Amino acid sequence: MSVVVEAALWGAAIGGALVVGALAGAFLPMRERLATTATVFGGGILLGALAFGVVPEAEEHAGPTTTALGFLCGALAFLAIDWLLTRDEGRAELRRALQAGASGGRGRSGGREEAARGQTIALGIFADGVPETAALGVTIAEGEIGLALLAGVLVSNLVESYGATQPIVDGGHSRTFAVLLFGAIAAALLGAIVLGSTLLLDAGDTVIGIAQAVAGGAIFATVTTAIVPHAFAEVSRWAAVAAGLGFLVGYLLA
């Protein structure tokens, strides 16, 4: 199987998780604590994937110093994008809700802010998804998919779109619009993973290591700034249990 075909298949699975989550959010009752707990579980898997897969592989390719710098750059880049998306409080509230597996996240304001929910959520999901799919693209380019990273991405995408669909519908959009919105994001992430794996096919070890480190830093920033704090606020100490179990799953898969 060619690298492009393999990347496309995994990209379709990742995008499919977004669409399935959106369908569930549009047509099933919203279970807020369940969605948040599942999200922090997925975050734990991602942390396990970083600790035992992505970062060690980056160090193997690029060395410890370059890996550390790349990781820091990736985290700072994600935080800069996140700041751009949350410069006003209305958008920040929506952003926090959707990133955390958005437990229904109804905004406090109406009018224009309500109408802008779809755009805000689309930008947020895309910003979160790019580093994750980029890291997966790197593993595909190397010839072996990272199972722990894949599992974490699938779980987080499924629950994030599930929780974020309800605010879109509450903002005045139809269920069909919400599902199509996440379908468009899924298509964009599919293109990103295929492009990333293709560009890295003939790259040297240092380039691959830097790409892994940067993507790892962005994923770490996503989990620690968006998922974990909200989960502890919603489900308290059980969030630590869910995150710990997810971390163990990530360790076993890696």
Q: What topology emerges from the helices and strands here?
A:
Blueprint: H1 3-27, H2 32-62, H3 64-85, H4 89-99, H5 112-115, H6 117-141, H7 147-170, H8 175-199, H9 205-235, H10 238-253
Helix pairs in contact: 1-6, 1-7, 1-8, 2-3, 2-7, 2-9, 2-10, 3-6, 3-9, 4-6, 4-7, 6-7, 6-8, 6-9, 7-8, 7-10, 9-10
Give the beta-strand count: 0
Q: Give the N-to-C terminal Cα separation.
A: 23 Å
Q: What overall form do the CA principal axes indicate? A: globular
Report the sheet-strand fraction.
under 5%
Taking pLDDT < 50 over at least 5 consecutive residues as the criterion, the unreliable ranges are 100-112
| SSE series | HHHHHHHHHH
Percent range for helical residues?
over 70%
Mean of pLDDT: 79
Largest sheet: number of strands, sense, barrel closure: none
Structural class: mainly alpha
What's the alpha carbon Rg, rounded to whole Å? 17 Å
Count up the helices: 10
Q: Can you summarize this structure?
A:
The protein has 254 residues and is mostly helical.
